[in-house]
Amino acid sequence: MTTSEALADGPSDQAARAAAEAVWPQTLVGAGVLLTGLALAFGAISISSVAGYGGVGPNFLPWLVSIMLTVCGAWIIWEARSGGFRELDAPSGAVRAYWPGFVWVSAGLLLNAALLTTIGFILSCTLCFLLAVQGLRRASGQPSGAARTWVMDIVTGLLISAPVFWMFTQFLAINLPGLTSTGWF
User: Fold this and answer.
1) DSSP-based helix, strand, coil % in the chain, nearest 5
2) pTM of the model
3) How many CB atoms lie within 10 A of CB 47?
4) Any long-range contacts for 173-176 (C-beta under 8 Å, 24+ apart)?
5) In a domain, 123, yes or no
6) Which of 22, 101, 152, 178 is the right S-S partner for 120, CB 3.0 to 4.6 Å?
7) pLDDT in tens, 86-108
8) One domain, residues 133 and 72
9) Under a CB-based contact definition with an 8 Å cutoff, are residues 175 and 143 in contact?
10) Do 106 and 149 belong together in one domain?
């Protein structure tokens, strides 16, 4: 298409063309969600349905999730094939991925998994939070190198992970790795 043809097209023509180009990627996403739901349903077949506490068996949640994924996948495919997502916002953010931010977040997740049993739930989750927030700050262009920012992120991570740890260990009696055997840290 030449520049003069592009100028002759109105905004509605360009929007229609962009929507038509997006149909196949949207259909593929819907097919992926649908296939994930069907695969989960196939796996849920092998889970026992014997009712446990409260009359709900262990296969209830996998079946619920698989049904919802299958319905959502079929709905996404229908939406894509019947004209695409009509209310889709224009893409925001950078044109390319910010790989250093991805590395920060990935390091946080991997270190959390690696150090969970060594330094305990609270400290490993705080470290995960700290590194993930640093990566997200850098990706959005916010200042992140100041010592005050690091301290605030550590404190915030502790204020999030400690109550979660205590709720699971003290109130729900679910064992999570801690630094001490008291169950409070």
Assistant:
1) 70, 0, 30
2) 0.57
3) 14
4) 176/121
5) yes
6) 178
7) 777 777 777 788 899 999 999 99
8) no
9) no
10) yes
